[in-house]
Fold these 2 entries.
Entry 1:
Amino acid sequence: MGRIRILSDNVANKIAAGEVVERPASVVKELLENSLDAGATEIRVDTENAGRRLIRIQDDGCGMLRDDAMLAFERHATSKLSDVKDLLAIATLGFRGEALPSIASVSRLVLETRSDEEQTGARVEIAGGKMLKCDEIARPRGTTISVRDLFFNVPARKKFLRSDQTELAHIGSLMTHYSLGHANKRFELYHEGRELLNVSPVESLRERAFQVFGSEIMQDLIDVRTRTFEVRLPPPYVPPHIRASAEQPPAEPDVTEFALEGLISGPHVQKLNRNSIFLFVNGRLIRDKVLLHALSAAYHNLMPVGCYPFALLFLNCDPSEVDVNVHPSKTEVRFRHGSAVHDAVRDAVREMLMESRPVSNIPLPASPVAQRRTEPPLVQRAAALPFSEYSAISEMEEAPVSELPAETQGGALPVVEVVTPVVPTQSWPAAAPAPVTVATTTMRRIPDTHGGLDGLPSDWERVDSLEALRDLRPLGQLHDSFIVAAGRDGLWIIDQHVAHERILFEQVLRQRAAGNVEIQQLLMPIVLQLTPGQEFEYARIAEELNAYGFETEPFGQRTIAIKSSPAGVGPGDIEKIVFEILEIAESEFRAASLEEIRRSVCATIACRAAIKINMRLEPKKIDWLLRALSACEYPMTCPHGRPIALRYSTKDILKSFHRI
Ligand code: ADP
Ligand code: MG
């Protein structure tokens, strides 16, 4: 007798469960996706013991026919796909027909459901993959699925589960993330009767983001208005696993349309990881390298390296444009026209950033009341959790219990404190005196006895910061480093070095693009000794160096002579710049696009050539600097992401003096 046997369905289901169901949150994910696919508008999830004892999901979706209720537990039973061609254009979240049988094979599951087409509903009971009962029941339209004692028959899997806090936080994070993708639906999450999330349907993404993240972040967010872009590109892409069996690929459209919308933060919101980036492709929350890279590229030279923005982006396109059948948990996708999508998303986000150009406000010292640390609601903290695959246990770092805030210990609040830290880039110097605000809460405000301000423009609260920058009146220089200026919208302080850096950066970038970088010939060539690594990089980028005005030639073994440099660069800096560029080449050339490398090189040249701090400036030079800055495309942050200007807005000044 041969040694190969066909596995029983029960064993096959358990193997599939290994991929699809790794933790309670992955059960919630699958059931939630089913409810959304069923067109539910209200979804409620109840959990006990962090989902180990019970996960119950109720929806008001289309429900199932009685026969289907039993069929749904067969392996590869799905109503969402009938032909292999359908795989090329999946419009639903599910399609593999694996979730229900997998979950049912590792738990005790009860399904209750009724569709509009039938008078009575069905109740199906299954334990460890074995069908126990199937009854007729009366119930409203929709579906309720209860999953009890998860992994009761797979003790090894149970051991991999983390603490209650972690498991519940994953469920919370998952529900919150999905709620962001469906603002028009209600999502409720309860743990042992306690409400953890309850968001009612709202009309806009902004409102849903407010429900989830609270008011604090909202003021920093820029709307990415719905914009569509077209991609025209052959050749037809057929995923490799289908290529063999598909009879005919669908006719290739000449052009295909993508729509992008969402919310992004300005460059001053700087997170240390990607946990605040939420990407949805056709309503599916995904992690995608192409889109993540496009987003980073949009913020390139606006934000320090290693910092990330907040972003909530929805990309919608024809389902045939994305292959979602890449991973069993369906969190990865593959675009047919990846690089075109990448560039379009990068450009769209960058355009929005350019358009909004928010100026950094000088933060007012918080009043004593506001300073008291208020605990962000659960949903905010859950939303800050990393979006892993909800199954990859190894990716999840578990906070030791002792590090959890007191109120989350002992099971009171089921949250792991993974709040994304924000780099305090724009804080007013630490020594800023705050006497005014200490009195804020105790002093009576009598604004009118002190008179109102004359000469305020009628629209003083709505002055556009770019316009204000254009007609700043310089008052002087602080510590020979910062330009102080009066603006229509308040008092401005400008860092002279980074301002000049931005001006030069844009200038060099423009000149480089036009191929006419201004150069200066050196009286004496500068001779540089290179390491073998540098020599290798030099050979690759000599031409690029030349395009920036660094005319070089080999000069003996591992030695080069520099004969010219971009105009404005001091002789002492030339050597440093060339070495820095060689370093960029070494670290970035292989991975980055030419555009990114050029930006990095321009940033290096600009930084070296810019006026320094601790330098007294003539009034004329200050005037020139402000004018040149206001003519910049992005005058608010330097190419390394630091803010250029701080503004003490008229409103804050009036507030601080208790005049409003
Ligand atoms: P898939 O979602 O990949 O089709 P599942 O195993 O998750 O596979 O579900 C199997 C089928 O059960 C679905 O195709 C759908 O027809 C039905 N189903 C599951 N959950 C629901 C629900 N909440 N409401 C209506 N139908 C459902
Ligand atoms: Mg499903």
Entry 2:
Amino acid sequence: MNFSIFTFMPRSNILAQRIEFIKGVGEAKAKVFAAELGVRTVEDMLQVFPFRYDDRSRFGLIKDARNGDAVQLKGILISLGRVRMKRGSRLKGAFKDPSGIVELTWFQGAKWLEETLQIGTEYVLYGKVKVYQGQKTIAHPEMETLAKSQQQSAFLPVYPSTTVLDKKNVGQRSRRNIVMRIFESLTKEDFPEVLPTSIAEKLRLCHRYYAYKWIHFPENEEQRQQASNRLKFEELFFLQLRILQTKKQREQKFKGFVFEKVGDYFNRFYKEKLSFALTGAQKRVMKEIRYDLGSEVQMNRLLQGDVGSGKTIVALMSMLIALDNGYQACLLAPTEILAQQHFLSISESLKGIGVQCAFLSGSVKGKTRGQLLMMLKEGHIDILIGTHAILEDPVQFKKLGLAVTDEQHRFGVAQRAKLWTKNEHIPPHILVMTATPIPRTLAMTTYGDLDVSIIDELPPGRKPVATVHRREADRMRIIKFMKREIAKGRQIYVVYPLIEESEKLDLENLDQGYQELLNYFPLPEYQIAVVHGRMKPRDKDMEMNRFASGRAHIMVATTVIEVGVNVPNASIMIIEDASRFGLSQLHQLRGRVGRGADQSYCVLMTKAGLSQNARERIQTMCRTNDGFEIAEVDMKLRGPGDIEGTQQSGIVELKIANIVNDVQIMQTARHFAIEILNKDVDLKLPEHEILAREMNKLKSKNQS
Ligand code: ADP
Ligand code: MG
């Protein structure tokens, strides 16, 4: 028996065959598939999974069909024939079910239909009904003989499509037929197991053959579920295996400096300088970091903690451990202002301990810069704090032991990698900090090669920021509220959006807002500081300082203050045009207040006409202060493709798993991947041979 679906190719290894050799595909269609969906082989074709199913177990009646309804009908074709038109002709038919008659029309590509459709035969028909002057018509219906349709599953796959595919007559029906034809010549042998039996058994995964078959043509919900579980697990498992193997192999290749002791710098700071007790979470994280620094492995740790949770102290104490062991440390911040602020506060807290701190950014130039670089190279500077400028090649350390980056989401993977090259032989330990909570799935993927520490506790006495949504009509009430709070000695941020394409317009908005505020808050009684991205760093700093020192009551700013600025007395954040900000950005901004002991407020101002998406963002902000909850909602609203970092990690290319919804499966996959790699990192054991093979296959696929 020869079931070959191919016009002339041999039956062996069907999955690797090119699709143009499948009967009914051909060269032209194959080209369209390749260009539109990247589908070249039979396997590619099977890996374009349906995104939903049409339930074809139910039939409608012609008499109930309304204009625009998509219906499935069961009945008899009672007539078929060409009708001459001004130009060419069209094919028309009549279809009858127990309740009535509907007209069918085909405008193009109808020649073969004319030849295959048979009057008097029972068909199952699917299409969209148009009613015109009482006459019901269906254009281009999908038709299948009743006999054949009864062999098909009730759930018909609906595949992701493109307008080009639709235009080139590769519609859903034709796609389905291609996949169905492929399965006609596939057997279980064509789907060898790629997972160790122990895992497949433990998780009761169905056979891969059924997984593929049922994902395309499930007979019931249970089959669909089983298929989807198996395929999602497989996909996430190999993703985790890849990420974690790279990490482990890297750890083996690069040794880390061993910081054996905690010495004077650390101890004196801890005993003499630290004015508060560390929170439980801070202590736990310090322990995790100290463990890393004392082991022989290079640390690559992500420190996650909501805004205001006290990451800086942790970074500082970690740097002091580096110093205690005879090494230098550096701290990178994404903006000049934030770097400055770190420099000032860290220099202040280290006063009298004998630590040399220095500041470096693009604005440090000429002689000062030259001198600084020399001192750094000779080891006279212990801690260097600054911006991206630190990454530049001329910036050389004598012995960099630890590099910290603040607000990692502002830095790319490439920049992190650059830090590795700051020493010749052994890379420094790396600590990256972020206040933008990373949804759990991302923590396991984009950041999956980092160990994660979480500060999940705020210092005592912090009150959640009360957040409200207000509109233009409430403006006067807001002004009064601002005056009351200023009278109590509080300070206020007023923030305007800044989006690059409309930078000019945004500045006008900011300026207009500033002028208006001047009317309500006149000099000399009130002082208003202004900061935006177009200002010279020096002017920015002057204005920042005016606010930070308490001389200005209000700070009007663009999002330059988004990150890290710390003015504990500022307790009110007013965000203008809040609907134009992303959710995580709003959360970051709100994090600027609520740092002191006073009750803090965040007011989200919006104009009329909010989109559904914007409304959800605003409502989420008003409902919760929990950064993790906000991050999850953010990801749902934006989709993973938009989330920073997903591009580099390859997770946007997931074929079936969903990064938002499949956290549970991802966790299980990660667990099994860790278990295997702990035993056998290079996948050399005989029982892991299939894994190694599959990994290689995926790797070569990714490169092609
Ligand atoms: P973030 O995690 O946002 O970088 P910071 O490190 O800037 O937070 O800390 C915010 C504020 O909380 C700072 O003023 C800091 O001195 C203070 N702080 C940090 N840890 C504690 C603590 N354990 N107890 C009280 N205040 C703390
Ligand atoms: Mg910070």
